[in-house]
Amino acid sequence: MRILVTNDDGIDAPGLHSMASALVAAGYEITIAAPREERSGSGSSLGTLEHGAEIAYEERQYDHLDGVKAYSFDAPPAFAVFASCAGAFGAPPDLVVSGINPGHNTGRMILNSSTVAAALTASTLGVRAVAVSCGFPPEHRFDTASAVAVAVVRWMIEHGAPRTVLNVNVPDLDLSELKGVRMAPLAPRGLLGLTFERTSEVVQLLRYANTDRLGVGTDSALVCQGYVAISPLTAVFSGSVESGVAEDVAASLPRPAVVSES
Fold first, then answer.
1. Which residues contact 97 (CB under 8 A, 6 or more apart)?
2. Do 191 and 223 meet the contact criterion of CB atoms below 8 Å apart?
3. What per-residue confidence (pLDDT) applies to 242?
4. What separation in angstroms does the CA of 46 have from each of 21, 82, 117?
5. Which residues fall within 8 angstroms of residue 151, CB to CB, at 6 or more apart?
6. pLDDT tens digit string along 36-46?
7. Any idea what DSSP says for residue 244?
8. Are 169 and 140 in contact (CB under 8 A)?
9. Using the 8-state DSSP alphabet, how is residue 224 labeled?
10. Mind listing the pLDDT tens digit for each residue in 199-235?
C-alpha cells in the first residue's frame, strides 16, 4: 500500500510531519509531495496549465523520516498530487492523505480549501483520499488528529472503494476526551468565518471563529460538540437536470439568415 502525504501549508509544516511520522510508526510506506511553501486557499488550482510550463521541484530529506522520499514543488498541492498520481515520481499511490491542516475544514467553504482539494484531485484520477484537519494554534492538537488519521487510513485500506474521499475534522481534545466519531453532512457555514474590509486601494481579508448557524448534526456542529466528523465527498460528476434544457437553449440561439436563391 503506497501512501502519498501532502498538505497546503508547505512541506516543512508541523501538521504534515506529525501525520507522516504517525503513518510511518504504524508501518505504512509513504512518500511526501507538497508545496514548497504556504498555498492555503488555492482550492484545486494546479498553478498553471500552459503547454511546456516548467514546475520546479526539490527532493528533501528529514532525519525523523528516515528512508522517506519527499518532494517539494513550486506549485499548489493539487499539482503535487496530480503529478504523483500520473506516475511522474514512480508508481502512483494507492491512497492520498492530505493534512494535517491547522484550521477545521468544515461546511461549504471547503470548496476553497486546498487541503480538501488535494484529496478531491486524487479521486478524479481514481485514487482514494483522506483530508484531515484540526483547529488553529495554539489550541491545535496534531497528536490527536494524527491518531485519528491512522485509524481512518486503516479503514480506507480495508474498505474504501476507488475514488472514495473522506474529509475528517478532529476536535482539539485528548483522545480519551473525544465523544466519538460521526458521519456528518456539510454545515451551511464553516467554523472559519471570513469578512472583508475595503479601502481605496485594498480589500483586507479578516477571519474569525464562527459558531453561529451551524445546523444540527453537521460537521461544524459535531466538532464543536467534541466529535470527530467524517464527511464523504464527491469530486466531479455529471448531475441531472430537468429534461428539455438542451432543446430550449438550442431554440433560443440566433440563427443565420436564410438566403433564398432566385
1. 3, 4, 5, 6, 19, 23, 129, 130, 132, 149, 153
2. yes
3. 60
4. 27, 8, 10
5. none
6. 999 998 888 89
7. T
8. no
9. H
10. 999 999 998 888 888 999 999 999 999 999 999 998 7
